[in-house]
Please model this.
Amino acid sequence: MRRLILLLIAIAALVFGAAWYAWNGAGPAQKPVAVTVPEGGTIRSAAGALEKAGAIASADRFLILSRIFGGDGVIRAGEYEVPKGASAHWIFDLLRSGKTLQRLITVPEGMPSILVYEKLMAIPVLTGTIPVPIEGGVLPDSYAYQKGESRAAVLKRMMTAMDKTVAALWAKRKPGLVVTTPQQAVTLAAIVEKETGVPSERRMVAGVYSNRLRIGMPLQADPTVIYPVTKGKPLGRRILQSELRADNGYNTYAKPGLPLGPIANPGRAAIAAVLDPAPTRALYFVADGKGGHVFADTLAEHNANVAKWYAIRRQRGEM
Model:
């Protein structure tokens, strides 16, 4: 009798050990796999999806093991990424954690709305169609989305973020600004965004353009000439003289003042710069050959800076 008991204990230990290993040992996934648990999904339906994706070897065995070792944990809906070789135990904990797969779309500072539209439309796991968003209405940032989500929902988050950001920055604006409405601030910020890629220069560029607006001097910003031609996409050639003369509401060479609207989606920093521009008397700036710009108060100083820039370009074989 004693031997029988010992044999049964040994058998039970072996069975438990095999079950423990099946629960905690490496799974069959040869690469990361994505598995979606729909709203209202059960552990049984999730097990079927896991088996189909190759994350587990057997849905029935996973269900048995989860009852033995998993307890009463409730799984959460969403899309999950199961790593290569993940154990059944690891997968079960993942489904209970709600740590769903993070898919991100990034809108860089200064991206025009036509490119935001194209980027959203190119994501195959999003659904539905959207119009090209209003220029200046999207806040550049990274946004999470889930498989099966509508493009309209993602775009709404982008636009809501811009509305909230502009409202918050406008409430803290410095007194005596040349821009008198939030929309004007976004319009000028889009030009600042396009005119410099150096973060430390944003307030100075905003100061130059604020000075020009204040005295009625044309902004003469090349990106505003290009925008009506390409809707913000790269021009791919030099600006034509006819384009510099075109009176289309955006060309800031043709007349003083702000263009009809934004020419891109400016980031938070550019908007903040316009609402707190650098205190400067500068009216001009030109490239310095090092990625930034050199600023000047007078036309004579500016012409000298332009001559230096042309000399640099000639040295580089660009002229």
Summary: The mean pLDDT is 89. Residues 112 and 264 are 4 Å apart (CA to CA). Strands lie at 33-37, 78-82, 103-106, 142-145, 284-287, 293-296.
